[in-house]
Amino acid sequence: MSCAVRVWRSAAPGGSNTTDPDVGRAWRRRLPRDQRPADPDHEDVVAPLDLRSLGPAAAVWAGALLGPSAGMRWWVVPAGAGVLFLVRRSPRRWAWIAVVACLTGSAWVSGLHSDRRAADPVSVAARAGSAAELTVEVTSFPRAVVGGPGGGAEGSDGSAPAAPRWRVTVHALTSQQDGPVDADVQVFATGADWRTVVPGAQLTVRGRLSAGEWAGLPTITLQARGGPDLRRTAPWYQGAAATVRENLRDSASSLPPEAGALLVGLVVGDTSGVEPQLDADAKATGLAHLLAVSGSHFTVVCGAVVLLLRRVGLRTAVVGGAVVTVALVLVVGAQPSVMRAAVMGSIGLVALLLGRGRTALPALCWAVIALLLTDPDLALSAGFALSVLATAGLVLLVPVWTRSLRDRGWPVGWATVLAVPVAAQIVTMPVIVALSGSVSLVSIPANMAVAPVVALALLFGVLCAAVGPWWPDAGVVLAHCAAPLLQWMAFVAHTLARWPDAVLPWPASPGGVAVLTSVTVVLVLVLRNRRIRALAAAVLVGGVSVLLPAQVVEPGWPVAGWVVVACEVGQGDALVLSTGEPGVGVVIDTGPDPILMDGCLDRLGITRVPLAVLTHLHADHVDGLAGVLDGRQVDAVGVGLNRAPAPAWTAIPGTLGPVPLVSLPAGTVWRSGNLTLEVLGPTQPFRGTASDPNNESVVMMATVAGVRILLTGDIEPEAQTVLLDAGADLRADVLKTPHHGSARVTADFLAAVAAPVVLIGVGVDNDYGHPAPSLLDAVAAAGAEVVLRTDLDGDVAVTSQDGHLATAERGAGLQVQG
């Protein structure tokens, strides 16, 4: 079967170009001049770039987004009819008919899917927040998560959950309350029993249902109580896939921790062993895709198999590629990027068998069409969008840019190493910014640095997974072969993440994303001009030469490596804890003023707050809550025992809207990125003290990148004594003083904490005399080397640099301790 091409011939003067009537209509691109045939009748032959399926694919995606809205769904039909009427005489009317049909069909498929889900008894129960007992079939391997719906802040009985917390996707089959059901459910659970569940197994699960979003998708979640009850074991092939994963983990356990975790993440996407610091650095440097199985993994593995079997025969090679594709899906799990790669690869294998060349773009488009019609929710999946966009960039941009660089004398290998990360960064940047509120300025050099080793490390890892179940010693040897390559990846992530201004905050709003997209497109078009390109290079080099030393000598705000910031919000407390992830921070109290709170978070570039804690309900700690919620994603708000004053408590739900309110009893452990929060108190209610609400403040020990920070709310001597009597480990590197520097802090409490850095959230010329001179003397006697006050220093930060604590005031230089 031959591919159609369009042949353009020069027209006579005054004439017009003619087109060979025997070929199909398609958009095409020119061959480079040095590849054009010498035949004068074909001197302008163009190589095919078949974009015919691009329009239908985009229409299906748009329809999947519009379908859940009943109004939009009905308007699609007359709008499509109007378009067809306008183009009824167009020579491309059949292409328009295909696009309109895809848009309309997809909208109705998506709409019916949404209606069916909303009417299912499980969905109805989830919207009511009901308890349920479900019989389910597992559809994914368990994945370790931090937080999730419910915040991950407490166990089902209010006790501290085990770490990590597991997320398992299941399909509900029956409900004890409603009989047969048909709904996908995300189960969040703790306990060792959940780690070993296998896709295909049938379980009975119990817990409380809720409706909301997870990773941007409409989701039914179940907070599981207790372990699962096995009703039917998984099929043999799913059990075999689980065995492969387990043996890979066993082989990886013989490596250094970071290398072992990277090996498992690279091969099967299991990130449960990845340390928070490595995870955060990978995200900051644009290397997080190494921990999520994607199309590049399929390309490397299936491509290697097809090449090895090609000498045996074409059909054998195609069958081998198909077997490997199915095996990878089973072992990795049916994640959006995996399914996109699998469907696209299957289409490519069929095209190879039929002798059809240049099928990458049509295969991508048909994979999108097939998957979105099967599961319209994928239209909202960030992982699916990133996978499709990255693949499209590699197909459309990389060949052109690589050839352009080769024409300028670049070796083909180096041209590819540069073109691939640049193309991937450009096309995925809008989605990444919408998710993270930041742009990585080191993503391209980081990906260039690891590009030569990724494929080899992946092949070693796949061989390790395949051989391990049969020959464990060989699996260990193969894992050790990959170790140096994996350690290089970790080194690149850690090193580049600490470059000055490695991550640039950017508004995650639709307007911010649109501006960034427009600027990127304009730059790509403008830089095609050689003179402008040379000028831009000169400006870039000059800017780096001037700005980089300035950044090293005098850092901006926020200071690199900050772990905690006390915000200047007047007479009140408001602190932000770093999670190590760009744009993501945990808020502890919100001060009295929403505008000041919002400004502090804006200065830090915070766009997502996985948890905001209200230590107690006095106005100087909670009235700024609206500023935290303004324009940011807030996953949960946590509170302790305190419910007074009553007007403040009753006002919170109205302020929060759909944001869940979670309880933080003593013993709770909560994690996000490289931040761990442990709730130390209150362990009991207080009655009859000088201030019961103050004494019932939530007291937490935060650990960020190894730095211990004691957060004390407004606790008085009574609560301080309870903590000391309970034998709590109060030793900290940083102390947030109780009650804005009140004199009501005991010497024994300060001695037990013995923090070298003390933070005081206090307003200028306040009416309370805070901080009390006696308190300042007491913290000095307890060993404090630095006392930072928001009334004198504005926003203040504590950083961890090269194993030393450092402090900074906004706009001031560093004062390094030890």
Show the helix and strand layout.
Layout: E1 8-9, E2 18-19, E3 28-30, E4 46-48, H1 54-66, H2 70-86, H3 93-119, H4 121-128, E5 131-138, E6 143-145, E7 165-175, E8 179-189, H5 192-195, E9 202-214, E10 217-224, E11 229-232, H6 236-252, H7 257-268, H8 276-284, H9 295-309, H10 314-332, H11 336-354, H12 360-374, H13 382-396, H14 398-407, H15 412-436, E12 438-440, H16 443-467, H17 472-497, E13 503-505, H18 510-526, H19 530-553, E14 562-566, E15 574-578, E16 585-590, H20 594-604, E17 608-609, E18 612-614, H21 619-622, H22 625-629, E19 633-634, E20 637-639, H23 646-656, E21 661-663, E22 669-672, E23 675-681, H24 692-695, E24 699-704, E25 707-711, H25 717-725, E26 734-736, H26 747-753, E27 757-760, H27 773-781, E28 786-789, H28 790-793, E29 796-801, E30 804-809, E31 814-816
Parallel strand pairs: 8-10, 16-18, 17-19, 18-20, 20-21, 25-26, 26-27, 27-28
Antiparallel strand pairs: 1-2, 3-4, 5-7, 5-9, 6-7, 7-8, 9-10, 9-11, 12-13, 14-15, 14-29, 15-16, 22-23, 23-24, 24-25, 29-30, 30-31
Helix pairs in contact: 1-3, 1-12, 2-3, 6-7, 6-10, 6-16, 6-17, 7-16, 7-17, 8-17, 9-10, 9-11, 10-11, 11-12, 11-13, 12-13, 13-15, 14-15, 15-16, 15-18, 16-17
